[in-house]
Design goal:
about 200 residues; alpha+beta; five-stranded antiparallel beta sheet; four-stranded antiparallel beta sheet; 3 helices; 9 strands; about 25% helix; elongated
Amino acid sequence: MSLMDSIDIDSKSEKPVSLIWGCELSSERDSYTFQVPEEWQCEQQLALRTICLGEMARDEFHVVEIVPAEEGDARAPVPLATLKPSVLPMATLVGVELTPPVTFHLRAGSGPVYISGQHVSMMPNLSWDEEEEEEEEDAEEEEPAEESPEKLPKGQAAKKGSAAKKRRLEKEDELRNNVSPEDPLPSKGQGAGRGRKAAAKK
């Protein structure tokens, strides 16, 4: 499980801080232990990225392994990479995320072999409270500017619509009353609104 998977998304009290990390293994120093001080109370992780041979490495197999912690653990070392300058001088490591302490050992070869990665620490996020207060203040300042124009209550809007409808109906009634039965009202689109010829009375 990676450090990023274990982080609660809603947690704002910690933030990940990443530093580039690296070490060298050679015949002079064939072992390196990555550890953090005990006073560091935050969660730590080492994410490996590459392992490569130096330009002075002999054309021989170089085997790098991870040695288990020495807390009464009888597990065998785990090979991490086998490199040879003429065949595979470098390997990219994806998804290798380790919790310290971690010991690397040059099992075969004279090196130099370089291991690099990222040291990720979950540090307390002290600036979160300040940012949250600033966001609240900004939101309060923006609220008055976003006011919408006043709207009429639903009752008044309905009254306006019904008054206009009532007037239209009254006008239609007046037209019907003023027209003689012999002259039917023109239907819509057929001369409505145009001047009509008066029918000759005989």
